[in-house]
TrEMBL record:
The species this protein was found in: Caenorhabditis brenneri
InterPro entries: FAD/NAD-bd_sf, OSGIN1/2
Biological classification of the source: Eukaryota, Metazoa, Ecdysozoa, Nematoda, Chromadorea
Gene3D superfamilies according to UniProt: FAD/NAD(P)-binding domain (3.50.50.60)
This protein's name: FAD/NAD(P)-binding domain-containing protein
Amino acid sequence: MMIILFFPAVTVDVQVSKFYSDPQIAGNGPAGIALSSFLSGMHPFYDVRHPHENVTVHERLLANQDFSLIDQDLSWSSDLTELSQSGRPLSVLYDMLVRPGADMGSESPGCLQWEMHREREVDHMVIGETKIGGSWNEYDPAMLTVSFSDWMDMPGLTMEQWLCGRPMVKRLPSVAIATYLKKYVEKLRLRKKFHQHFVVSSIRKVGDVWVTEGKRSTDGRMFRIRSKQVVVACGKTSPRKLELPNEELCSSNIVYDVRTLKERLDSTKKTVIDEECYDTPSTSTSAPVIVVGDGVSSVDCVRHCLERDIPVVHVIRRTLRELRNVMLSRLSPAHYSEYTNIYRMMIGRHAHKNYQRLLDSNISSISKIHVEITTGTREIIEMPYSTLAVCIGRESHFSSVFDSAHTFLDYRSQQDPTLFAVGAYAGDHFVRFLVGGCLRVAQHINCNMNNNNVEKGVKLV
Ligand SMILES: Cc1cc2nc3c(=O)[nH]c(=O)nc-3n(C[C@H](O)[C@H](O)[C@H](O)COP(=O)(O)OP(=O)(O)OC[C@H]3O[C@@H](n4cnc5c(N)ncnc54)[C@H](O)[C@@H]3O)c2cc1C
């Protein structure tokens, strides 16, 4: 006789790691790191030994020299013409205090001094899907930064201090920035605040508490974090697509960043190291790489092709007139020769046997072997290609984790005063500016946490 035993169905309780943290910061790139530093007690004070040359800035800060910038009302910065024009007065104020006259090549000392006040620490948690350093873990490690190394400084421990001396070159490879960000977190003893490989899938409000949920990418374990305040520091990490009907179907021929293009080229071509080889006729018979976009990433793509003797067709949406005003046009040849050389080809001042530009043009359709390019005069050009490199900017899809839409003003949600945004997600794309935005959010959070500023008689807005 066969006995069949039925066991009652076991309810598998999916294990969920639960945390309480206030605030919770989603994103562990430069913005998440800078904010964590401020919340851990790293405070900037006006250094009266190095007064700022702007009289209003000097007088305002001098009057509050005993208070950290986090504890003082800096709203006057939006009344200063030179700051208000930027639309982000505090970001620009912070930059000009840390690096006075940097854009004019000045190397004057900064006007801030830093003090660590551990007793002011606001308990918080920083989560991110990457390792500490955010997007800087994803870039081509050899890519030289557009920013000079001191423009990448985090609060209170500069690149120069970390390297124990000023770097010999102005621009460092991206791997140095990624390493600096990790070492910064360790040196400031912020490491326990950071939880890597946490991927957020939803953030919703239950009563007056935010509930952030997601999965750890390392072991699939779910997490749930409850907090009174949330800061979105998730950057803009998804490349913009052309949004053409066949784009997904042709994805094996399309790349959206320099690193992937370089890896693809390196697996098929050898590098032309000697620049003089540029003058010899092209040995390449292959279909061209088509590069779309006119920012530094697209220029990097063009450069990597030319260095490998690969023909490039550069599709640029702007007209010649518009192209004369882009950021590339303002870069100094002394520091950015790799960009200015190609910019000259883009505006037609220089020619190269392997480089063809199409201005005022767009990719209008794509198949696995051809692209169709529509020019400003409505001419349609059909062209074979080997790879299509699309570098037309980045966006974020993070807002889909919320169940309702939020708009941000002064880094705070206009719909909910306990939700904030910093860094690239909030429109501060460069590290030199995003730290000032983090300072503003540290002010908001300190204010919300009702710390002892009221006793000090300092007005926070
Ligand atoms: C090719 C390139 C070169 C650049 N060069 C410079 C330069 O020279 N100087 C400069 O100042 N800036 C440069 N930038 C801009 C760069 O974006 C900023 O330096 C900076 O990284 C922005 O910091 P962030 O903290 O806002 O975002 P990020 O560094 O992008 O960090 C955001 C983090 O949030 C994470 N995240 C996103 N969604 C989720 C989710 N659902 N769950 C969990 N985590 C999530 C991301 O994975 C990432 O780890 C460059 C950008 C590119 C693309």
